[in-house]
């Protein structure tokens, strides 16, 4: 199957390409009858064949393989403080449905727990596996052993849920690099912890003016990302 | 306490107003020393006093009453299909934290149940009360007895969660009128049900390309609204 991927407005039986995509086909030295992949940027992907290829115009015919790509454009990580009881199970399950590639457990100043047993970690990993199947994902998220917040290194963007922050996720999210979201324990992150994260480049984003429970905040924040089509 | 409300960029000890707000003060025939309310549009509100009032410039001094307004600009309703077991409790709790004014239970074609006992309804109402207190809201959401989906009348906008819909909540949400969000039962809404809602003016919006459980979808959708600062 061709590895060339071309973006189209919508998957349709016949798809006329824009000038940039047509140039792209010429650069790739493709010809009428050649196969490629089309995607709509909304999660749908399919095989297609070049039916018409002129200097400034191209028409593709949709193949029969249409699939929904269930993964985010770049890996999405939920970093979440250790929570009491079964709350982490609920969070891992919902986070998996909402597309995370990994869940990083964190030890924070006010965390409900300072550690997690090996058995419980295994159980969380199994929950991620089940939830991944149920939500028809190709990827099983990894649940990572807790590390102290101050020592956690992330790659790409980090968004920290902060009640009443003036910044909003919508204007900041950029899938050019991995995306991380972080939510605190029941008592919240300390001011020092938040300041430390912001110094390291994190964005504090609002989840509205109300106080959310520690197990609601990650679902709400990941839901906001999902509602952007990811 | 003054009922005049003036929007400011941020609550600060001294706030200089823009030309439009200054004109507004003159129109209201206010003078130095008069009291009013300031709000930042992000949920924070406070009393303030006019310290300086010139033809094109005004400075306000922040009063000591600062409160976070925890309610959405217009009422927000979650309409949710009847779900099995304790799932509705979890949904009502999270929906309350995320700012709904009411939860309308719905009987749908594939709903897990066709009715709900009076005792269970009372219990859901009590959960809304507790969650309202915990999230420091002034409003206790009402949990409304189930009605058949086809007979449910809503006011304002209605957003229905539909996997893979090309429409996104972000571009559509408008607080000029009440906002309603609707999520289906475990088996989803039927095509006929969705078509009927769209005919009646509902918007189908995406929650990303993955399959969400019936109890995750409402939290994700309400989370997306909360992440817009509401």
From TrEMBL, chains A, B:
Protein name: Ribosomal RNA small subunit methyltransferase E
Physiological role: Specifically methylates the N3 position of the uracil ring of uridine 1498 (m3U1498) in 16S rRNA. Acts on the fully assembled 30S ribosomal subunit.
Gene3D superfamilies: 3.40.1280.10
Residue spans crossing the bilayer: none
Taxonomic lineage of the native organism: Bacteria, Thermotogati, Deinococcota, Deinococci, Deinococcales
Enzyme Commission code(s) on record: 2.1.1.193
UniProt-listed CDD domains: RsmE-like
Keywords noted in UniProt: Cytoplasm, Methyltransferase, rRNA processing, S-adenosyl-L-methionine, Transferase
Organism: Deinococcus aerophilus
GO MF annotation terms: methyltransferase activity
UniProt record similarity statement: Belongs to the RNA methyltransferase RsmE family.
Pfam hit, one: PUA_4
Subcellular location: Cytoplasm
Top EC class, one word: transferase
SUPFAM superfamilies: alpha/beta knot (SSF75217), PUA domain-like (SSF88697)
PANTHER family according to UniProt: 16S RRNA (URACIL(1498)-N(3))-METHYLTRANSFERASE, RIBOSOMAL RNA SMALL SUBUNIT METHYLTRANSFERASE E
Biological processes, Gene Ontology terms: methylation
Catalytic activity, reaction form: uridine(1498) in 16S rRNA + S-adenosyl-L-methionine = N(3)-methyluridine(1498) in 16S rRNA + S-adenosyl-L-homocysteine + H(+)
Domain called Ribosomal RNA small subunit methyltransferase E PUA-like: residue spans: 20-61
Domain Ribosomal RNA small subunit methyltransferase E methyltransferase span(s) in chain numbering: 71-225
